[in-house]
Specification:
- The structure holds three protein chains of three kinds.
- Chain A is α/β, with parallel strands linked by helices.
- Chain A contains 14 helices and eleven strands.
- In chain A, helix 5 (118-128) packs across helix 6 (147-159) and helix 6 runs parallel beside helix 7 (177-194).
- The longest helix of chain A has 18 residues, at 177-194.
- The two termini of chain A are 39 Å apart.
- The mean pLDDT of chain A is 89.
- In chain B, helix 5 crosses helix 6 (163-176) and helix 5 (147-157) runs parallel beside helix 7 (193-205).
- Chain B is globular.
- Chain B is 31% helix and 19% strand.
- Chain C is built from twelve helices and no strands.
- The model of chain C is unreliable at 295-299 (pLDDT under 50).
- Classes of the chains: A alpha/beta, B alpha/beta, C mainly alpha.
- Chains in contact: A-B, A-C.
Chain lengths: 328, 401, 299
């Protein structure tokens, strides 16, 4: 059952007098108990999408839907929504007020929402996040904790509100390699124990492989490929996904994309990836007869349904030809 | 000790070796065991280097007796988590540490002891012989000065070029790192993060140094930009014969960029050896944990099974007795808590076995390896045997038996 | 059981933090001197009504000779009406310090509220508040204070109001800058995601983080308020009560400096200098101790 959904979502900013289309038409659904990884480079709009899903940013069109009904932006409705969908930020050191103790940091949510049994709530959230025994951590200040412990405190702070969805923005990017796996394992355990859904925003495909059920690859405000992790990461269809996978340290033949990094104030016509596309550059797209389409015809917004989807003229042409070949 | 390979020194002294082999074999170790042998000096040699910070509550050891050697044209990756002493070690190479740090041991840069240099000589060596690409280098550029001027600055400071030459060279350097020469007239804010990192590398190259120390050069960058910068670094090391020391917590990045790896824990090198061998067949449980932290996409073993290391890094002021890793070690023995462990050679049949899998040349671009220069055959495997894979763990000796 | 424990721990923590603060402050020698001078001045001002007779301040009931040099009966001589300068100094300190403290307090309250609110609401509200602040910043505050004092009529509260209303603008700018820095921290985002409203963010996160700055700045503001009060009194826009500035005015009116009556000019002048210096020293010391960056470096 779909719990949290973005429907044809568009978010814009004005940046240096220009309109930046940070999120430019996105459908994304998160089912109950599902972990979805949203992957892309910085500036692709993934963080803006996550903030909009949390109601921290307002879309110019489209809607965020939770439990089937659209999110309302009155302060009362938003406050109620916060108990359902919670946020974990990248930098645990910055996410904790240095003047607050661990107890105060975790109790902040329950205090805002005036929840009963504050102490027990905090204790159970801390132990769920793996800080045991919780009483030992109550009086500590963030600077007395290691990076991994700080991120656990941030997660405990979210858990204290008993949410059903966690939106985690690069939850392990600023942590040490050794701690990374522990925090990811914690997310998996929370899903198993509490049925928690999670949307993990990351630039790290290894993270998606480690924990996610589905992955959505975002480029310049659009999702260009989505589907089950096993499918998308082992048999990628979109040239951009393929390029991202090829530059992983272990991959055999890296395709390092050149060109300027994507700029949301200047979205190219046609396929928005075409100026950097290695398939187009190699002539493979021309061979398939889609080179002109790439530069001129925009691609449709991908649906949010669970199957595998790709927004690429070349991939579509190849699939069509494959089907035709299969019939003949 | 029944195992003849148990003691690296006796092993090294055992057979006839060329000077280069001996130097290479010395690789990395802890403690004074590997005193410098006579022979041609490498680009950089560290002998029993220790760094201690004087704190209010007593001395805190950050680096505890590290010995390393680096050839020209070779890339050495130093891995470890924060607090392992890897950045302190890197900064000590050019004496860039704060005042309250005390460095002991010997740091030989082209045979000259960095620790014994006077200020004038040290200033000349910084940038000119060795330069540093700092962590978070994007913020190290002066926002109000033109990029070309900032690249030219070290050349002018060291008097190696006239202003006109320096300008020309700055433009050349920009092209060398893959940026158009006209960027020299621009300001840092016009560049993206990856481009700024390239400018930092161009600055580091300005005085044609023989050694570059890169401290987490790609940590804040996206995968695609990271790939661009790593490709650039690899080609520079290969093309110019520059020695590279790269610091990171990401073993997979180091393994794909460097020829050799050294893994640090609590101020010591706990494992070192050829990059692929350490990455694929880490013998030390800590090395294994670091290697497993970044999964291979497509590997079914790591699917929905993120692996990490429990516990927290030790407090440098109160290090555990014996092997400092034992409180977090999944395979520790009772003796680990009391007996310190020295580096021991890892046999070819390490924990994960197959040495054939280690010769894949993914580690070194364009097939150029240091081993090719070693006498006794260009074969990668034979050459590699001269640079032992060592690890400081009691289990290593047992496995050899 | 459990809910009590964290509070107890928090209290113990706060006590420890306070003693740490005291130790850090004690390491600042200049700050200690400042605090000692201040303590002496405040104690003297508080003790004055207990140990002296206010009737000595009444010009109709004076016993001394006019403009007499220091003597056993009048250790600091007398003024033009024959009042003891020492007595005037003691009573004047009450007025000067009171006006200094009160107007600094008023200035800080206005400045902090404007600064925090303008920094928190970055939309039109913040813009309007900052324009108002800028307006007060460029206004010649001394002239405005004199006009205010003249319009509102004499009295301590008038002077407090006049100084307080004209001196908050720079504080507001300072606090706003600090608020912007705090608001950019990720923990503010986390707090908002937890459901916090404007009030919660401003009171639980922004205010505690700007409070050290406010405290250090208040100390410095007291000094400038005392100077402002003296200036106003000297220019004739006084509170109508004897203050250090008022004494200077009196000595000027009667040509004390030219006629060699140093005992009338120097004591109030030196008192102003000493107290202002003391507040400045304390403010600087507080800044050093409370600035998280400097404190972090010390650890």
């Amino acid at each position: 059952m779909t719990l949290l959904e973005a429907r044809d979502l568009r978010v814009e900013f004005v940046s240096r007098g220009r309109r930046a289309r940070a999120v430019d038409g996105v459908n994304l659904a998160l089912a109950e108990g599902e972990i979805v990884a949203l992957v892309g480079e910085s500036g692709c709009g993934k963080t803006t999408l996550a903030r909009t899903l949390l109601g921290l940013e307002r879309p110019v069109s489209g809607s965020v839907r939770y439990g089937g009904s659209p999110l309302r932006y009155s302060s009362r409705a938003l406050k109620a929504y916060r108990r359902e969908v919670q946020l974990v930020l990248q930098d645990p050191t910055g996410s904790l007020n240095p003047r607050h103790t661990v107890y105060e940091a975790v109790a902040e949510g329950p205090r805002i929402h005036r929840l009963p049994d504050e102490g027990e709530r905090v204790a159970s959230a801390l132990s769920r996040a793996g800080l045991r025994p919780p009483e030992r951590f109550f009086g500590r200040h963030p600077h007395e904790l290691s990076g991994g412990q700080r991120q656990r405190v941030v997660i405990a702070g979210a858990l204290a509100l008993e949410p059903r969805v966690l939106v985690a923005d690069e939850p392990v990017a600023s942590l040490d390699a050794s701690v990374r796996g522990e925090i990811l394992a914690l997310l998996l355990r929370l899903r198993a124990e509490l049925g928690l859904s999670a949307l993990v925003v990351t630039h790290d495909l290894g993270l998606a492989w480690n924990i996610a059920d589905r992955v959505a690859v975002m480029y310049l405000g659009r999702i260009v490929e989505s589907g089950p992790v096993e499918h998308v990461l082992t048999a990628p269809s979109h040239p951009y996904t393929r390029a991202l996978l090829s530059v992983l340290p272990d991959a055999p033949s890296p395709v390092v994309l050149g060109g300027e990094p994507p700029d949301a104030t200047r979205v190219p016509p046609g396929c928005r990836f075409h100026p950097r596309c290695q398939v187009l550059a190699s002539g493979a797209a021309a061979e398939a007869g889609v080179a002109e389409l790439c530069a001129s015809r925009p691609l449709p917004v991908l649906p949010s349904s669970p199957g595998a989807h790709v927004a690429c003229h070349h991939a579509e042409a190849t699939i069509l030809r494959g089907r035709a070949g299969g019939r003949s | 000790m029944s195992d003849p390979l148990g003691d690296p020194v006796s092993h090294l002294a055992g057979g006839p070796m060329t000077g280069l082999e001996r130097l290479a074999a010395r690789g990395a170790s802890n403690g004074p065991a590997s005193a410098p042998a006579s022979g041609p000096a490498g680009l950089l040699e560290l002998h029993d280097v220790s760094v201690t910070y004087r704190g209010a509550d007593g001395d805190v050891p950050a680096v505890r007796g590290v010995s390393l050697a680096l050839e020209a044209g070779e890339a050495l990756g130093v891995a470890g988590e924060s607090g392992s002493g890897k950045s302190t070690l890197a900064m000590s190479l050019l004496r860039l540490l704060p005042r309250d740090a005390r460095v002991s041991g010997r740091i030989l840069l082209e045979g000259e002891d960095v620790l014994a240099m006077n200020w004038g000589r040290l200033r000349a060596v910084r940038w000119a012989s060795a330069s540093v690409v700092f962590q978070g280098a994007q913020h190290a550029l002066n926002p109000v000065r033109r990029i070309g001027d900032q690249i030219a600055e070290p050349m002018l400071v060291h008097g190696t070029a006239t202003p006109a030459e320096a300008r020309r060279r700055a433009a050349e350097l920009l092209e060398q790192v893959g940026l158009p020469a006209w960027r020299a007239r621009g300001h840092p804010h016009e560049l993206s993060g990856g481009q700024r990192q390239r400018v930092m590398i161009a600055m580091a190259l300005a005085c044609s140094p023989r050694l570059i120390v890169a401290d987490e050069p790609t940590t804040a960058l996206d995968v695609m930009i990271q790939a661009q910068v790593l490709t650039l670094i690899r080609s520079l090391v290969a093309g110019h014969g520059i020695g590279l020391i790269m610091i990171s917590h990401d073993l997979s990045v180091l393994a794909s960029t460097c020829d050799r790896l050294a893994i640090m824990y609590a101020g010591r090198v706990v494992e070192s050896g050829p990059a692929r061998q350490v990455f694929r067949g880490a013998a030390h449980p800590y090395g294994r944990a670091l290697a497993e932290a970044f999964p291979t996409v497509g590997d079914p073993a790591s699917r929905r099974a993120p692996r990490g290391l429990g516990g927290d890094p030790p407090d440098p002021a109160h290090l555990p007795a014996g092997c400092s890793f034992h409180p977090r070690c999944p395979v520790s023995l009772v003796s680990c808590a009391s007996e310190p462990v020295e580096l021991r050679p890892v046999t070819a049949r390490g924990p994960t076995g197959v040495p054939g899998g280690l010769t894949g040349n993914g580690a070194v671009p364009d097939g150029r390896t240091v081993d090719d220069t070693a006498p006794g055959g260009p074969g990668g495997r034979a050459g590699r045997a001269g640079r032992p894979h060592v690890a400081a763990c009691v289990h290593v000796g047992e496995e050899a038996r | 059981m459990i809910p009590q424990a964290p509070r107890r721990i928090a209290r113990a923590r706060r006590r420890a933090a306070l003693s740490r603060f005291c130790r850090a402050y004690a390491r600042d020698r200049a700050g200690l001197y400042g605090a000692a001078i201040l303590l002496a001045a405040v104690l003297a001002a508080l003790a004055t009504p207990l140990v002296t007779d206010p009737s000595g301040m009444d010009v109709t009931a004076t016993t001394g000779e006019a403009m007499a040099p220091p003597s056993a009966g009048f250790p600091l001589g007398t003024d033009e009406s024959g009042r003891s300068v020492l007595l005037m100094l003691l009573w004047g300190s009450r007025v000067s310090l009171l006006i200094g403290f009160m107007s600094a307090l008023l200035s800080m309250v206005i400045g902090t509220v404007f600064g925090v609110v303008a920094g928190h609401f970055r939309g039109p509200v913040g813009a309007v508040l900052m324009r108002v602040t800028d307006w007060f910043l460029v206004l010649p505050s001394l002239v405005l204070a004199m006009v205010l004092a003249a319009v509102l009529g004499g009295g301590v509260s008038t002077i407090v109001l006049a100084i307080g209303v004209t001196s908050w603008a720079s504080t507001a700018r300072l606090i706003r800058a600090q608020t912007l820095a705090v608001e950019a921290r990720p923990y503010i985002e986390r707090s908002r995601a937890l459901g916090a409203g404007h009030w919660h963010v401003m009171t639980r996160h922004v205010l505690p983080n700007v409070a050290p700055l406010v405290l250090a700045n208040t100390t410095l503001t007291v000094a400038s308020a005392i100077v402002a009060e003296s200036t106003l009194a000297f220019l004739g826009a006084g509170s109508g009560q004897v203050s250090w500035g008022g004494m200077l005015r009196g000595s000027y009116d009667w040509g004390a400096a030219t006629s060699g009556a140093w005992w009338y000019v120097l004591p109030p002048g030196l008192c102003i200098v000493a107290v202002v210096l003391a507040f400045t020293l304390c403010g600087r010391a507080l800044e050093t101790v409370l600035n998280p960056r400097l404190r972090g470096a010390a650890r």
